[in-house]
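Input sequence (216 aa), recorded before submission:
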Amino acid sequence: MSDEGVERIISHIGEEAKKEISEILLTAQAEADKIKKAAQEKAERETERILSNGKRLASLEGQRIIAETKIDVRRKRMDAQEEAIAASFEGAKRALEELAQKGKLDNFLYRDVVFDLVASASEIVAGDKLELVFNQRDRRDFKKDILRQLTAFVKKRTGRDLHLALADKTMQCLGGVVVRDMENQVEVDNTLETKLNRLKEGIRVNVAKILFGDRL
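Predicted structure, token format:
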């Protein structure tokens, strides 16, 4: 083979090699671009996922903070309301104590209150022989003429022929009375403290509405 033929073959091989190399490079470049694009898309998806999770977590955290704040505000408001309601009842207790000690407060007469307490207790018990237990102060002040007036008042109120007597022993209380049915061994506690405590749960909602209105 002549040198010219060898050169042509080498040249042909070179051209084919260049062409093949070029195709390999193009294919590699396309694959690289594909991989790069896929990597970018994956990165974007991952970034979006992270951002989305971040936003979701931030939103959840924000909601949690808001919820906890609302709960805390409501708890503090309820605590304040309870304190105000308790203060109102404490004020009522002081007023009752003053009424019992002085015998009169504003338009209220302590004797009228005691008469009503004895009568309401007498309506509950069944016996006709009743014993009245007072604190030491009221027992001392409860004279015979007052007892007669009280007996007449209770008889009219109950429609029964009752016999009322003062107990020899006294008790510790702000005021009011314990009425004992001597025949049936039953007693009704109508002391001021017990009466106030008994009423407390029933009227506390009304007290709260008076104090706070629609803010409950």
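Checked by second reader. Residues 56 and 114 are 67 Å apart (CA to CA).
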